[in-house]
Amino acid sequence: MAASLLLAALLSAAGTPATAVPNGPGPSDSVVVATTAETPAAETPAAETPAAANPAAPASGPVRYRPRHLLLQTGGGVGMLSAGGGLSFAHRRLDLDGLLGYVPARHAGTALTIASLKLKYAPWELPLGRSGLALQPLAVGVYGSYTFGLRNPGKPDQYPDDYYWWSSTMRVGPVLGSSLSYMLPVAANGHTRRLTAYYELATNDLYAISYYQNRRALSLRDIATLALGLKLEF
Amino acid sequence: MLRGALVGALAAGLSACELVEFSPNDHRAPAHQKDLTAKNLARLAAAPLPPGDTLRFVFTGDSQRFYDDAEDLVRSVNQQPGIQFMLVSGDISDFGLGREMQWVDNELRQLKVPYLTVIGNHDQVANGREAYQEIFGPLNYSFVFGDTKFVLIDTNSREYNFNGRVPDVPWLQQQLADPAGARRTVVISHVPPQDNDFDPSLRDAYAATLRETPNLVFEMNGHRHDYSVTQPFNDGVTYVNSYSFEKRNYLIVTVWGDKQFRLKQISF
Fold it and tell me: How many CA atoms lie within 13 A of B256 on its CB side?
């Protein structure tokens, strides 16, 4: 089942021409894939959509760095609740997200604020019939986070040099996930919008090294974290 | 059938919830991995040692990032006859994270006997102190087992940036002044008082408190990852340091009489 899903995703990706897509606020490639599900090469119409047709399109400027989505997430080691946004590249297959998360004191001893950056690549997208749904079966990525508000992150001169070799505040780790998107009605200003629900399995550097050195006693389940989130593309 | 599926789905859902980690410093733990000190003390109280009986326990420390070794240690300790409990002299975790403390408990809860811990310096990194309190319990505590009163105290002064209040010497004095019906006393802490990580402004008061306790058998420490029996202050007070888990050795401590003891080294 999973294999055939993956195969279908591969075929779908293979049928997608690598056409340049305008980066204006018009409908994006991936959005069109979801709406015109019957034609796998669905990016072409998007590519041909003149930016001028959209009254909201900026005339010029570094539109490439316009935020393309908003995010709301729980877990993943970066907040009980975290919110942010991101940029999109490579036909919306590559996302660079920034999140600001919060953990109340009752869950961590002190109230924590966690800033994180995440780079995530989802190579395939599977339109699910005419439902307006599309599945991104696999996303891989990396994240890094910085935690503010720890009780004992170490003061200057508290420890001799190299007393603790790791940072308590900075974490990095790999991310693996999937997502399901749903086309929303077109906004009044003509923007195409899409809501995506995603999950991510991740771990961090400290868990990973613990697992690497103790593969008998620890399992991947022991070091995994789960994030659940919503992404609004516009 | 349907009920089975629902229960299965619920279990999977709950398990997934545990994976939704807010931060590595998030110390939430499943109910069976909270208040472990109180739970292990209750287990110990359920199998009391009659007065006059010989005390025998396993002494180890610094489990840190040595989970495979922990598995082997448990297997070895479970083969020792006549053991009443195990003491771990701190540094349960390596990075002060709650999940590490749960991993260590996943191994140590396989012991046939209860185990008790004292907090180490690594357990106080970041928000580890709160995680330790949530998962294990108090930083300073005492209990009586048979003829012996055990006093466990936080001596990780450097983690408080030498604020002059850790270890809590007045609390120690109070604990040692009240034997609570016991014949002898054992003090356990992670950082030994002669160590650079012990608050130098409290060293003399701490050592003097132990010296002035006639029924003290010894002080037991960890932190140095190796076995030693010394009298660093040349004042007649004996300090026993534990092996760390990765040294693949532990001690079986036997205590009888007023304060006679034997230390037996076991390799695993």
Answer: 7
Place A188 in a pLDDT band, splitting at 50, 70 and 90. Answer: confident
Using CA atoms, how far apart are residues B260 and A188, in angstroms rounded to an integer? 86
A157: in domain: no
- Show residues of chain B in contact with A201, CB under 8 Å: 19
CATH classification of the domain holding B214: 3.60.21.10
Q: Find which of B14, B21, B26 to mutate to test the A interface (most A CBs within 10 Å of its CB).
A: B21
Range of the domain at B240: 32-267
Query: Do A192 and A181 meet the contact criterion of CB atoms below 8 Å apart?
Result: no
SS (H, E, C) A105-134: HHHHCCCEEEEEEEEEECCCCEEECCCCEE
Residue identified by tokens 């132990």 is: B210
Q: Which domain holds residue A170?
A: 2-16+25-49+66-152+164-233
Query: For residue A11, what is the domain's CATH number?
Result: 2.40.160
Q: Which of A88, A93, A89 is nearest to A16 (CA)?
A: A93
Under 8 Å between Cβ of B24 and A207: yes
- pLDDT band at A63; cut points 50, 70, 90: low
Torsion of CA A67, A73, A76, A79, to 10 degrees: 100
Residues B112, B114, B119, CA angle at the centre, nearest 5°?
Answer: 135
CA distance A170 to A160: 20
Give the minimum alpha-carbon distance from B162 to chain A in angstroms, rounded to a whole number. 8
A123 upstream amide cis, omega within 30 of 0: no
Convert the pLDDT of each residue in A107-146 to its tens digit: 999 999 999 999 999 999 999 988 899 999 999 999 999 9
Look at residues B130, B148, B146 and name the one whose alpha carbon lies nearest to residue B138: B130
* Residues belonging to chain A: 234
The answer as to whether A173 is a domain residue is: yes
Q: What percent of chain A has pLDDT over 90?
A: 62
Domain count, chain B: 1
- Residue/partner pairs of B8-14 with CB below 8 Å, 24 or more apart: none
**Which residue from A71, A164, A151 is spatially nearest to A118, judged by alpha carbons?**
A71
CB contact under 8 A, A107 and B126: no
How does pLDDT run across B210-228, given as a tens digit for each residue? 999 999 999 999 999 999 9
**Domain assignment of residue A229, yes or no:** yes
Do B67 and A155 lie within an 8 Å CB cutoff?
Answer: no
Q: What is the pLDDT of residue B257?
A: 95
Our count of domains for chain A comes to 1
**Whether complex ipTM tops 0.85:** yes
B12 falls within a domain: no
* Structural domain includes residue B3: no
